[in-house]
Write a structure and sequence with these properties.
Shape: globular
Bound molecules: manganese (II) ion
Oligomer: single chain
CATH architecture of the largest domain: Alpha-Beta Complex
Number of strands: 15
Number of domains: 2
CATH superfamily of the largest domain: Creatinase/methionine aminopeptidase superfamily
Strand order of the largest sheet: 7-6-8-14-15
CATH topology of the largest domain: Creatine Amidinohydrolase
Length: 295
């Protein structure tokens, strides 16, 4: 990996870390989810980072992929377990990091389970490590707290302007030939739950990604697609980032574009046993001495 590339990864990581620190300050009972997302995203751009994906704010049995939708009126509640997952990039070099927040030490040991699983995984992360070993370490750590890892969520390799290159970093013991190599960039993200240990797609989505140009009937949908292709050609975007169309027309346009195969939608991910889910995530550059860019 070139020195300049490493520097960009590190800079993105620093900005993402700052955004997580801001989140820890502003996520409070009664705070607006929409304003929280907006403040975190302004913090990123204020520090000259680019937003790699909409700030995921997923509570309780929703593990990931939730974010504020347009005109969202939801607020945080006293007993919420809140996952904040942030993406920053510099020229496409991505920092992906997440933390879990609760109030009054609620479910503190479940927060600790995912955090410690991440720390233990990072300890064995170096060139030559089989990624199945990372999954094993995560699983054993989470189980030692009496919880289950979410088996069908995983970390991933990062590429320039690509959040998920196609290879996953497992959260459970896995048989694989894949070993880490110098120059790899990966996100490690254990999820712990007191539920069934798996997620399924929920019934709503607020995050989308451009796939390809497809003919659609609705003019508002065609305009939306042109805008998305121009501004978010490879990275995900939030419905709330679009200035037009609004309201029902926005929902209709997004639905048409998803049906036409022009946009990919990311449904919210819900724990199948309605268990609470916690998450911790860092981005690591695999070097002779690995660099945790978001720590
Ligand atoms: Mn993430
Ligand atoms: Mn990730």
């Amino acid at each position: 990996m070139e020195k300049e590339t490493i520097e960009k990864y590190i800079e993105a990581g620093k900005i993402a870390k700052k955004a997580i620190e801001l989140a820890k300050k502003i996520v409070k009972p009664g705070a607006s989810i929409l304003e929280t997302a907006q403040k975190i995203e302004s913090e990123i751009t204020k520090n000259n980072g680019q937003i790699a994906f909409p700030t995921n704010i997923s509570t309780n049995d929703f593990a990931a992929h939730d974010t504020a939708f347009p005109n969202d009126t939801r607020t945080f509640k006293d007993d919420d377990i809140i996952k904040i997952d942030i993406g920053v990039h510099i020229d496409g070099y991505i920092a992906d990091t997440a933390t879990t927040i609760s109030f009054n030490n609620n479910k503190a040991d479940m927060l600790k389970a995912s955090r410690e699983a991440l720390q233990n995984a990072i300890k064995i992360t170096r060139p030559g490590t089989n990624i199945g070993e990372i999954g094993k370490t995560i699983q054993e750590t989470i189980e030692s707290f009496g919880y289950k890892p979410v088996s069908n969520l995983s970390g991933h390799y990062l590429g320039q302007y690509t959040i998920h290159t196609g290879t996953s970093i497992p959260n459970i013991k896995t048989d694989t030939d894949v070993t880490l190599k110098e120059g790899d960039a990966i996100a490690i993200e254990p999820f712990a739950t007191d539920g069934a240990g798996a997620i399924r797609d929920g019934s709503r989505a607020a995050i989308y990604r451009f796939i390809q140009n497809r003919p659609v009937r609705l003019q508002a949908a065609r305009k939306l697609l042109t805008f998305a292709q121009k501004n978010y050609s490879t990275l995900p975007f939030a419905a709330r980032w679009l200035k037009e169309p609004k309201g029902f027309m926005l929902d209709t346009a997004l639905k048409q574009l998803v049906q036409a195969g022009a946009l990919h939608e990311y449904p919210v991910l819900k724990e199948i046993g309605n268990g609470t889910v916690t998450q911790a995530e860092h981005t690591v550059l695999i070097q002779e001495k690995p660099i945790v860019t978001t720590a």
